[in-house]
Every structure is written in structure tokens, then in C-alpha cells.
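Ticket closed. Logging final result for PsbP C-terminal domain-containing protein.
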Amino acid sequence: MSLVCPRCGPPLALAGRHRRRPHWARAVAPKCEASPSHPPVLTRRAVSAATLLLATLPFPASSPQLPVASASEAAAAAAAAEAQGESGVPEGLELERYTDQEQGFTLLKPASWPKVEKAGATALFQQEGKGSNNIGVVVNPVRLNSLTEFGTPQFVADRLLQAEKKKESTKSAEVISAGERSGHGGLTVYEIEYALDSTRGGMKRIFSAAFVASRKLYLLNIAYSDAKEKPLDSQTRTVLEQVLHSFDSV
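Final structure:
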């Protein structure tokens, strides 16, 4: 897929006669990082989504604003999940707080999901015995102050789905929801949910959250099985949504 990086852009066409510059005055276009052609299976989706946001999103025209969840509502939901006082939490999905002070993010994760090392992921947690159910975080530097400079949540969701559909392994992909909420210190956090049917892992439900802080792009990706013979149940979905809403800067 040949795309133009929004930071580099296409070369400008100058009017009039072309004049050669001395070799010492020639500008060198900055190089853009490309995602590896075959990243590890467990981090492929998180890395490709991060690469898309970093390297291929053009700056769109304005589009309708989506509802914003207040920071207090998001904090209350995260606190309720962290307290683990509610009934009906599926076995193995009890949540605990994970914070990376060095990279500057925090989230809730299933206590029984160990952290594993994979190239391309800042942090990756996977369900034991079923690595296709996983939570990944990717952090990359960007020349932006806010994710809103890329566009609205719906615009970002559409671009992510376009990228998914161009993969040979993708059979179908559909956006379920796209919105935004306020994070720590009024930070804008985008949240996207979509259904994915792929030859790599079958039917899955993907929950993504993204924000920009301190000129770094933070991307959370939650992948969980949603097969027709065993669809995602409401209790598991509630837990995954709590993980999604807990993703924030520190």
C-alpha cells in the first residue's frame, strides 16, 4: 500500500523554470518510519493501527463532534472496576491496576493475564492458553499536541477500517462505535470498537483507545474472541469496556 506521510507530504511543484540548486543546498526529505512487513501476530493489529495514525492519516476537514464522556464518569467506572465489588465478574478477568511511570500511561488489566515481551509493543498482556485474547499498548513519538489534529473519532475509525480491509487476512470489518472522553487533566481520548473477521484468529471484537500526551501517541488495543459458536457475553464485554475506559496518562 503506497501512502503519503502527512509529515513529509508530496514534493511541491514550483511554477516557472526549474533551477538546479548547488549540491550543498539540496534539502533532504525526512524519512518516515514504516511498519515491518511481518510483525508478530499478537502485536500486528496494535502496531498497524499505530503506524496508520503516525504515518498515513491526512488532516481532514471538520466533521460533527461526537458525545464526550466526562472525566468524573470515566474515573467512577474505573474505580468501580478496580474495587471489584460488583458481582458476576467472569473467572480469570478480575482486574488490577498497571502503571508504566516511565512511558506515562496507566490502565486496568486482568490480574491473571501475564505481561509478555513482543517486538513492537510497549506492553502486551495475553490470556494464558489463548494468546489471541490480548491487551496491547504501543507508544510512539509524534509531532502533535493532541489527537484532534488528526480528525474526529469517526474519521480515525474509518481510516482504521480501511487499513484492516486492505489486509489479505481480513474477511470483513465493521465499526460498532466511535467516540471520545476526557482523560487525566482534560486530555482527549478517542475510543473505537469494531468487529473483525479474519483468517488469523476468526471473529474478534476489537476495542481501541488513543491519545496524545507530551508529543507521544498512546494506543491501546484489546482483542477478544467473538465467534458465532461462542459470542462475547455481556459480563466479559463489561470488563473489557472497563479496561478501555481506564486507559489514561499519568
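The longest helix spans residues 71-83. No further action required.
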